[in-house]
Task: inverse folding
């Protein structure tokens, strides 16, 4: 009986406030917005994408700048097809500024070809990128390894907390399930594979031709593997600025290596030159090409590592990765049939993440509200600890249920809770 008196007294005391809370129409946001800001093959050509690409030193400076701006969670993805920043910020301008400050791209160029996505649209985009649905070659799952690499870089820079880690793990989970439960990645699907397919279709008697691969990074290594597998060529030559990297790959495949100092001589003898270096400027220029026979050059680099002037040389044909990525065959047509199933898997995991994120956002305020009610009722002489706890739990449960059933009103509801009851919740740092 004592408990009921206490409950009704405070329930009716709180009713007007709770009623106002649920009717509140203000558009208040307690949390920073999740943004994706970037540029990709869908919006920009090769040269413009090259301006917005980032090397390791640029990325390091970008992260340090982001920390100074108060950004706590950030992932930077930079590949041959896209440069994108993902994270939570007060404004998209923060990310656009970071991108334009630490690359060769300008704000004017970003206005012309860049894009900014936020909240659920940005989450959706990251899931699609990570599962190969946004790749230039549909089903290219090399992107997920690049996202993992970006995640580890951010973690080392202390730019990853619980929300970002949960998000990236969800994207990785979606990628694994789509790869194993659908055939959207049936067959080889990558720029490296596309380059070898192009060579097979356009260079007769490839097994007897001289092939030089310049650059032994991720794409170079994958290209080397595909060359060995599909060309039956036993005299492929690898050249890299760092000899140890070339020797390491040569230890895995039946290929030869030559020192960087012999690049000009190797190009002179080559029938096919594949350039997969990661330089920020051209590494292949007209002055080092002295061929007297047809030379096919495939440039797999962003930005271009083959100077535009090379295109004007006699006997030389330069193909860039955008051309290679447009190669389609029956295999790609088969992959497209699996898009609906892939999107179904993606959506299931994405919704689970969004529900987790939504609950995570309002838990601190609900805890603060519960403590406020307990502190208020505890001063009543008729209230026992058990009665106070039960009443606080009941009221908090009602609000939690409302938030779950009306997710579109969650931000404004939680904001008004803080305003009306003067709550100062301890937000989770991760």
Result:
């Amino acid at each position: 009986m004592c408990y009921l008196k206490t409950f009704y007294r405070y329930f009716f005391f709180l009713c007007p406030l709770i009623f106002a809370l649920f009717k509140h129409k203000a558009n208040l946001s307690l949390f920073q917005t999740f943004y994706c800001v970037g540029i990709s093959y869908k919006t920009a050509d090769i040269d413009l994408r090259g301006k917005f690409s980032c090397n390791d030193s640029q990325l390091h400076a970008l992260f340090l700048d982001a920390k100074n701006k108060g950004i706590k969670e950030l992932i930077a993805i930079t590949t041959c097809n896209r440069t994108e920043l993902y994270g939570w910020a007060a404004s998209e301008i923060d990310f656009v500024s970071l991108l334009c400050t630490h690359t060769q791209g300008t704000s004017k160029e970003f206005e012309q070809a860049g894009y900014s996505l936020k909240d659920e649209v940005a989450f959706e985009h990251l899931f699609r990128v990570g599962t190969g649905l946004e790749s230039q070659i549909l089903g290219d799952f090399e992107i997920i390894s690049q996202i993992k690499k970006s995640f580890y870089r951010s973690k080392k820079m202390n730019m990853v907390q619980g929300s970002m880690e949960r998000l990236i793990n969800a994207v990785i989970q979606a990628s694994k399930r789509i790869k194993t439960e659908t055939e959207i990645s049936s067959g080889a699907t990558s720029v490296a594979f596309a380059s070898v397919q192009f060579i097979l279709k356009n260079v007769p008697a490839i097994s007897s031709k001289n092939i030089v691969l310049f650059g032994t990074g991720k794409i170079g290594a994958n290209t080397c593997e595909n060359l060995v597998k599909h060309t039956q060529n036993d005299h492929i030559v690898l050249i890299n600025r760092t000899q140890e990297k070339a020797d390491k790959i040569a230890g895995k495949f039946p290929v030869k290596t030559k020192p960087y100092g012999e690049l000009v001589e190797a190009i002179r003898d080559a029938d096919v030159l594949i350039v997969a270096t990661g330089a920020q400027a051209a590494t292949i220029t007209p002055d080092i090409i002295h061929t007297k026979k047809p030379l096919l050059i495939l440039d797999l680099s962003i930005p271009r590592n083959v100077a535009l002037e090379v295109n004007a040389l006699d006997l030389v044909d330069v193909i860039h990765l955008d051309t290679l990525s447009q190669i389609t065959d029956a295999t790609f047509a088969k992959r497209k049939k699996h898009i609906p199933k892939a999107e179904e898997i993606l959506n299931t995991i994405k919704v689970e993440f969004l529900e987790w994120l939504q609950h995570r956002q309002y838990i601190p305020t609900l805890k603060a509200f519960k403590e406020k009610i307990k502190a208020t009722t505890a001063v009543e002489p008729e209230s026992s600890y058990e009665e106070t706890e039960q009443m606080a739990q009941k009221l908090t449960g009602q609000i939690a249920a409302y938030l779950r059933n009306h997710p579109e009103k969650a931000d404004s509801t939680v904001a008004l809770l803080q305003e009306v009851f003067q709550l100062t919740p301890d937000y989770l740092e991760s």
In short: DSSP finds 17 helices and ten strands in the chain. The longest strand covers residues 33-40. The radius of gyration is 28 Å.
